């Protein structure tokens, strides 16, 4: 298990701290459904949770939130995380899989005012390939995190992500055929 090292306030001692990284993305719509579920989970568990909140904002009790951070910082947090919980956008998922981190992907849904276009198609395709754990009911976050603890991330080089993204874009644009 990978852990981040954190200095204790006194004596130069170090301790291992496991980290759950949550990426809500930079979509202009808030993703409160996931934020509140993560805050509740963090209040019930002794594990550090770091959230990249984007436009969602963050008025919570149990988690560390950062609205916007440089991509280099996101990559560092991913490398230090035990598990990544992310919205269903391509960039966030790609970064997590490239780092071979167990990834729980929660698609933003139009019906909840979280986006203009559902992220379910990409999340479903990647879950079917065994690359991510798809989570639709945020009330099941604890179960998903427990499952992610034993999740083996497949080789990213064998990924169909580019093809899946192309198919999703073509579907959204109602384009047919290859080209």
Automatic annotation (TrEMBL):
Assigned keywords, A-Z: Transferase
Glycosyl transferase family 28 C-terminal domain span: 19-129
InterPro entries, A to Z: Glyco_trans_28_C
Organism superkingdom: Bacteria
Matches recorded under SUPFAM superfamilies: UDP-Glycosyltransferase/glycogen phosphorylase
Coiled coil segments of this chain: none
Name by which UniProt lists this protein: UDP-N-acetylglucosamine transferase subunit ALG13
Organism phylogeny: Bacteria, Pseudomonadati, Pseudomonadota, Gammaproteobacteria, Chromatiales
């Amino acid at each position: 298990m990978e852990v981040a090292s954190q200095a204790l306030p006194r004596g130069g001692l170090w301790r291992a701290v496991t980290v759950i990284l949550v990426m809500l993305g930079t979509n202009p719509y808030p993703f409160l459904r996931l934020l509140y579920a993560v805050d509740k989970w963090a209040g019930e568990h002794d594990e550090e949770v770091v959230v990249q909140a984007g436009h969602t904002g963050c008025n919570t009790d149990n988690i560390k939130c950062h609205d916007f951070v440089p991509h280099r910082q996101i990559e560092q947090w991913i490398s230090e995380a035990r598990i990544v919980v992310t919205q269903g956008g391509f960039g966030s998922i790609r970064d997590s899989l490239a780092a071979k981190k167990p990834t729980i992907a929660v698609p933003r849904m139009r019906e909840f005012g979280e986006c203009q276009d559902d992220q379910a198609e990409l999340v479903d395709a990647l879950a079917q390939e065994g690359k991510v754990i798809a989570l639709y009911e945020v009330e099941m976050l604890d179960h998903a995190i427990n499952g992610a603890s034993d999740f083996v991330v497949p080789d990213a080089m064998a990924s169909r992500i580019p093809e899946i993204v192309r198919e999703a874009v073509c579907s959204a644009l109602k384009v047919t055929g290859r080209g």
